[in-house]
Amino acid sequence: MQILMTKAAFGRVGERLAKVAPAAQVVTAGADDAYELNGKPIDKDAIDPEVVWLSLDSYASGTLGGLYGRLMKAEAPRWTQIMAAGIDNPIFRNILEKGVRLSKSSAQATPIAEYVVAHALSLQVPISQAAALQARHEWKSTPYHEVAKTRWLMAGFGNIGHEIARRIKPFGVHLTVVRRSPAAEGDLVDQVITLKDIKAELPQADVVVLACALNEETRNMCDDGFFRAMKPGAVLINIGRGGLVDEDALKAGLDRDQPGHAVLDVFQTEPLSAESWFWDHPKVRVTAHSSNSGDGNLGRGDELFLENLRRYLAKEPLLNEADRSEVGL
Known about the structure:
The chain is 33% helix and 16% strand. The chain is of the alpha/beta class and 329 residues long. The strands form two sheets. The chain has a seven-stranded mixed beta sheet, sandwiched between helices. A seven-stranded parallel beta sheet has the order 10-9-8-11-12-13-14, with helices on one face.
């Protein structure tokens, strides 16, 4: 069996990989679309991997395009582990169309969950108001609605949603999640609804988190009617995809205090233009698609690949395997 990955990834996991797949040939990709096998150059047209790992460092190092190209040209590929949690990028549809099994990443779920909770708490607890009072040397109390009494509404309940829930439930919040199926979710969730029922829940929600996939059903789901249904003063946090939100409708909603604040890590067009109204709006927090930028992602991604490789060889179910229906196939 031949495995294709970046040279950097092999440097991190080589010894452990040899224990999981001792008979595997590992081809590594470096800069300038150059490849090696056992430390010696190999012609890229001779590469025919059964397994391809599109690791996080492949994106950062610029080797992703080469790895993807090898995967799509090869005859043998059967499974690929990717670095992304969402698969709305057309390259992932192409991989599934080719008949290759695909496993999504859950490595970024931890920092994204921390991002969501940190922003939500900082907007629920009057930290900025207290800072303003301090700057004016003004001794004044800042009462607030306790976090334990808040209601959260979360669209999407995959790996990221679960990590968010694990962090907020100890505060005592009431959590409603939106899923395709209204099946029960155990102790982390108080209520499960489907997308068609979301507007009926919005008037009670203090925090609304968008953590769902972008598809034809969810595109522009946050439209004028969505924002008009929101509880005045509520917080909207989008760590899903920019296409979930009608940005003109959001601007109008912010002017009505529906929502009262918007924390946005993703946008319809990225990078966000310097002239965009988002930057200077007093009720908006802008981050550059960086909620996933935790310093533990590489390590968690390595562990996920090695565990999924073990499962693949043992013919066990893979973690986070994508279904073809997720890309409309």
